[in-house]
Amino acid sequence: MNKNTRVRVLVVEDERKVANALREGLEGEGYEVVVEHTGEGAFFRLNTETFDVILLDLTLPERDGLQVLTTLRGRGVETPVLVLTARDALEDRVLGLDSGADDYLVKPFAFAEVEARIRALVRRGRTTEAVRLAVADLDLDLVTRKVTRAGQPIELTVREFELIEYLMRHEGQVVSRGTLGRDVWKETARTTPLDNVIDVHIARLRRKVDLDHPVKLIHTVRGVGFMLREGEPVTPGMKARETK
C-alpha cells in the first residue's frame, strides 16, 4: 500500500491479542490504526473522528457491535464496516449484513484476507470521498498536499501539513495537546517537552495561516487546547476532545 494515502482504520476488538496482531500487521503495511476494546469506546471515537474503514467485532463489552453498527447507519455514517466475528451461523451473517455491514469475515482468519478485504472496501468507499478539505477560505488538497488561503499558496513542512489537516478534519472541535501528541506526533506519553514542541508548531502554523488575514482560523482555548474554525470559538463550558 502507498503510505501517502493515509488510510485510517479503526479496529474494534476486545480480544487484545487479536487487536494487537491486527494493529501490528496493518501498521506494517502503512495503515494508520486506532484500536478500541469496547463498543462504548468505539462509539465515542466514531462521534469525534473520521476513518476510512472499520473492523468491528460483534461481541463487545458495554455496547455490542450490532448496536454500534445500527446506530452509526441510523445517523447516516457510511464508513465501510468489515465485521470480524466468531459467529459463523448463516443467520448471524445475514443479521450483520442487514444491520449495515459491508463485509463479514469469520474468525479465525488469515491476515492477508483481512487486508485484501480492507483494500476492496477502501476503494469502494473512496470513489465518492472528497479529496479536498476546506474551512472558510483555507483549502487543503489531500492528493497534491497543497494548502492555500484565499487562493495564495502556503508552504508547510510535513508536520505542519499533518497538523493543519488534523485540525481541519476536526473543525469546530477543541483538541488538546495530549490528543495532538498521540494522533499527530504518535507519542503515547504526555510530556512537557512535547507540549512545548506542539506549541511551537501551532505558533508557526498560525503565522503562516492567519498573519495576513483579518479573520483568524486557529484559536487557542486557554487551558484546554486548540480549535480551527472561522470566527472566535465559544468557550464557556467547553472541554477538549480527549480520547482513550
Query: What fold name stands as the CATH topology of the largest domain?
Result: Rossmann fold
Portion of residues within helices: 25-40%
User: What is the alpha-carbon Rg in Å?
Assistant: 19 Å
Round the mean pLDDT to the nearest integer and report it. Answer: 84
Count of runs of 4 or more consecutive helical residues: 8
* Class derived from helix and strand content: alpha/beta
Could you give the count of β-strands? 11
What number of domains? 2
- What is the 3D shape? elongated
Looking at CATH, the homologous superfamily of the largest domain is: Response regulator
Element-by-element helix/strand order: EHEHEHEHEHEEEEHHHEE
What this model shows, in words?
With 244 residues, the protein is of the alpha/beta class. It has 2 domains: 3-125, Response regulator (Rossmann fold, 3-Layer(aba) Sandwich); 132-228, Orthogonal Bundle (Arc Repressor Mutant, subunit A), CATH 1.10.10.10. The protein has helices at 16-28, 39-48, 65-74, 90-98, 111-125, 158-169, 177-183, 192-210, and strands at 8-12, 32-36, 53-57, 81-85, 103-106, 132-135, 138-141, 146-149, 152-154, 218-221, 225-228. The strands form 3 sheets. A 5-stranded parallel beta sheet has the order 2-1-3-4-5, sandwiched between helices. Strand 1 (8-12), helix 1 (16-28) and strand 2 (32-36) form a beta-alpha-beta unit. The protein is elongated, with a radius of gyration of 19 Å.
